[in-house]
Structures are given as structure tokens and as C-alpha cells.
């Protein structure tokens, strides 16, 4: 009974707070086949919230792994016409999208980075016009998590698969503010209001740059786009002016860097799992906005494939602030899943910028966007740099320095 109650609460949270489900909305869900039990709850609750229709796209990482290993790079670089047409139809019909993450973080460990790059790069290029409908917030989207036995076992290797999965569910509910006795939707309304207050406070400073320092060796100055906006938690769907929450959970406040004005070096504070492959103990060195040097003790080839995606992957598209004392950080767990790990640590992102982090983004020409340092790329990959001793200083247009973070936490 408790299991059913908690899954129902979680499904309701995704439906109400995540995509703000309504009677005029079609929805599609992307999920691993091992998530079928929870997906059934989610579909049930979406219909209970009056969704017009719900479709589910299942995938199987083991089958996908075989395809990635056995097919040629030429074949992997092709995108079927039916897949493009499906995305076009869904965006034309204003579908909301729910993505459930939680597959084995190391599922594609044995697959060459060149095969993964061939598959993902071409798809990103061909499907970008439709994916941009979500990343630009024209349509509602939400990324949430659902444990699978393989993921749970990676996070809790000392437990049996069954115990690990139960423990991971417990931690996800905790991170998402779900308890047997509470109303998670109201909890999230309060949490969103608190994050928005902090974003408003940052916006009043109009910083031109942030300077990061910590004992790992990070010494990085990140210029900020001249009309940047600090954003938190909620976004507004352009299609119908309704709010939605793209990430559940979320603890971050984020904005747009100036991709032409980034200098120094930064070191990762947590491992990064990217498309089923692990990257750890890595660094980036920037000069005049571009990555000029990088390295990794684990997963160098995968890191190289990210950096070499296109011109935009040589710079940053996001700067996000998360206090070291955030609820997810205090769990002291490396989830090996960016949705959670990025909400336990200050982070940056290689690649594409988010339009919502720039004032009047839609009114700018492509030339103006580039000149202003608004990054454009086929990829967007978050990596964590936050530590217990992280210092962040905000620099204003008149040269004043304001301590934003001290010892890993906000001081403003």
C-alpha cells in the first residue's frame, strides 16, 4: 500500500508540477522498458489530470548497446524518415514531453566513443528543429527519474539488487520532497518560490562576470552575457503561457555565460556519466571563451568526443549555482546521473545556451547572439565543479566585487 501511495504522489508531482498537465494537452513519455511499472502509474495519473492523450516510447539499453556495437558508423549516422516525421507530428500537435532517466550509467561502457558520437551527433543535427521546441520552452517538458536495478546497484553496490532499488526509490522521494504524510505539490510551490527569490536577488546585481576558486585548483573567470537573466525551477511554455518545471528535482539557479569571455581553469568535482560511459577527474582550460586544453584520468576519449562536437562545444552555455548544503548534496551520494548530481553541486555546461536566460532572446539575430556570447551547439553537457570550499565572487560593471559563495554556500 505504501509503495502505491508513494508512486501515485510522485506521478502526480510530475503531472502537475512537471508538465502542468491540462485537458488540451497531449503527452508522450520516453522510458526504459524496465520502468514499465512506474510508467503505468504515470499514465494513469496523467489521464486523471485530464491529459487528452498519452503515448509511451520505450527503449531497451541492452538492445541499443548491441546496435551501437554491431552497426557501421555509416549506418549509425542515418536517421529514419519515420522518426523525423514522428517528432514533427508531436511538436506540431504541441505534445508535452516527459523523459524518465535511470538506465544503467555504464550501459555503453564497451561501445567505442566514435560509434556513440556518430549516432548521437547526426540525430542531434537532424532532429534539432523539433528538440529546440522543447529546449526553447515553446512546449512543456520534464526530466524525472525512475530507478532500474542496474542503476540502483551502481549507486549502492554493497546492497542486493532488490535492496538497492528500494533504497534508491527512498532517496529519490527524499530528493523530490515526497513523504507519506505531506502534499508534495504544495512543498514544491514553496520551494519554487524560495528559488525564485534567490534568482531575483542575483538579477539585481547585473554582474558582468563570476570568479570561481577552490582547492581542487579551479581558478576560472566566467563572463556573463550582457542581458543575462538568472532563472530558477520553473519555465513558461510559449505555446499557452502556462508554467512547468523542466527538472524534478531541481536546486539550481542558472544563467547564460558570455561564450567569448571565459578564462582560466576548472576541475570536475564529481564524475560525469555521459551516454552510458564514465568520465572522471577531468579539467578544462579556457582562453578568450574557448577550451584550449583539457584532460581526464577516466574517459578521455568520451570527453574528447563531447568537446569536438562542433564549434559551440568548445565553450560554455550555462553557469548554475547550487549550495553545497543543498538537500541532494547532504545525501552524500554520487548518483552517476546528471539530473541529481548537478543539483548537488555548482556546475557549468559545455555547449548550447538556454534562450530563457537572455532578455529578448527571440528578437536577436544570429549574428547578434554570437557577438553577445550566446553559445550555440548541438550538445549541452553539464559537469560539476562545486566543492565544500568553493568561493564565487561576482564582479559588477563598475569593478565592484561581491562575495556570492563562500565555503560552498550562498552568502547573499
UniProtKB/TrEMBL annotation:
UniProt record, GO biological process: proteolysis
Keyword set, alphabetical order: Aminopeptidase, Hydrolase, Metal-binding, Metalloprotease, Protease
Matching Gene3D superfamilies: Thermophilic metalloprotease (M29)
GO terms, molecular function: aminopeptidase activity; metal ion binding; metallopeptidase activity
Top-rank taxon, per record: Bacteria
Cofactor section: Mg(2+); Co(2+); Zn(2+)
Keyword Ribosomal protein: no
Keyword Protease listed: yes
InterPro entries for the chain: M29_Exopeptidase (IPR052170), M29_N-terminal (IPR035097), Peptidase_M29 (IPR000787)
Pfam families in UniProt: Peptidase_M29
Family indicated by similarity: Belongs to the peptidase M29 family.
Protein name per UniProt: Aminopeptidase
Species this chain originates from: Candidatus Scatoplasma merdavium
Lineage: Bacteria, Bacillati, Bacillota, Bacilli, Bacillales
Amino acid at each position: 500500500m505504501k509503495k502505491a501511495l508513494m508512486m501515485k504522489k510522485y506521478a502526480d508531482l510530475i503531472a502537475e508540477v512537471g508538465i502542468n498537465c491540462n485537458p488540451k494537452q497531449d503527452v508522450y513519455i520516453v522510458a526504459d522498458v524496465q520502468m514499465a511499472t512506474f510508467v503505468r502509474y504515470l499514465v494513469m495519473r496523467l489521464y486523471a489530470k485530464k491529459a487528452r492523450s498519452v503515448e509511451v516510447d520505450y527503449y531497451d539499453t541492452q538492445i541499443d548497446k548491441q546496435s551501437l556495437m554491431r552497426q557501421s558508423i555509416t549506418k549509425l549516422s542515418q536517421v529514419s524518415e519515420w522518426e523525423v516525421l514522428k517528432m514533427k507530428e508531436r511538436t506540431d500537435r504541441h505534445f508535452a514531453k516527459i523523459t524518465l532517466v535511470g538506465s544503467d550509467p555504464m550501459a555503453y561502457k564497451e561501445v567505442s566513443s566514435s560509434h556513440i558520437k556518430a549516432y548521437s551527433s547526426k540525430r542531434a543535427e537532424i532532429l534539432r528543429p523539433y528538440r529546440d521546441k522543447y529546449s526553447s520552452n515553446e512546449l512543456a517538458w520534464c526530466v524525472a527519474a525512475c530507478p532500474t536495478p542496474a542503476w540502483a546497484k551502481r549507486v549502492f553496490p554493497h546492497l542486493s539488487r532488490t535492496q538497492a532499488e528500494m533504497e534508491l526509490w527512498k532517496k529519490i522521494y527524499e530528493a523530490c520532497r515526497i513523504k507519506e504524510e505531506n502534499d508534495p505539490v504544495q512543498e514544491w510551490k514553496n520551494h519554487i518560490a524560495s528559488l525564485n527569490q534567490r534568482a531575483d536577488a542575483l538579477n539585481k546585481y547585473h554582474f558582468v562576470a563570476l570568479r570561481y576558486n577552490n582547492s581542487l585548483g579551479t581558478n576560472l573567470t566566467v563572463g556573463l552575457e550582457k542581458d543575462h537573466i538568472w532563472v530558477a525551477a520553473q519555465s513558461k511554455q510559449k505555446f499557452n503561457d502556462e508554467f512547468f518545471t523542466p527538472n524534478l528535482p531541481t536546486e539550481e539557479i542558472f544563467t547564460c555565460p558570455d561564450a567569448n569571455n571565459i578564462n582560466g581553469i576548472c576541475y570536475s568535482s564529481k564524475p560525469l556519466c555521459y551516454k552510458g560511459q564514465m568520465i572522471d577527474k577531468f579539467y578544462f582550460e579556457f582562453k578568450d571563451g574557448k577550451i584550449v586544453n583539457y584532460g581526464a584520468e577516466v574517459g578521455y576519449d568520451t570527453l574528447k568526443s563531447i568537446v569536438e562536437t562542433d564549434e559551440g562545444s568548445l565553450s560554455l552555455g550555462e553557469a548554475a549555482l547550487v549550495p553545497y548544503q543543498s538537500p541532494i548534496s547532504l545525501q552524500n551520494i554520487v548518483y552517476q546521473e546528471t539530473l541529481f548530481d548537478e543539483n548537488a553541486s555548482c556546475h557549468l555546461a559545455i555547449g548550447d545556451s538556454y534562450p530563457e536566460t537572455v532578455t529578448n532572446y527571440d528578437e536577436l539575430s544570429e549574428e547578434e547572439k554570437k557577438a553577445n556570447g550566446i553559445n550555440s551547439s548541438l550538445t549541452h553537457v553539464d559537469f560539476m565543479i562545486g566543492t565544500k570550499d568553493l568561493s564565487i565572487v561576482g564582479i559588477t560593471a563598475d569593478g565592484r566585487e561581491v562575495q556570492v559563495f563562500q565555503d560552498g554556500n550562498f552568502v547573499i
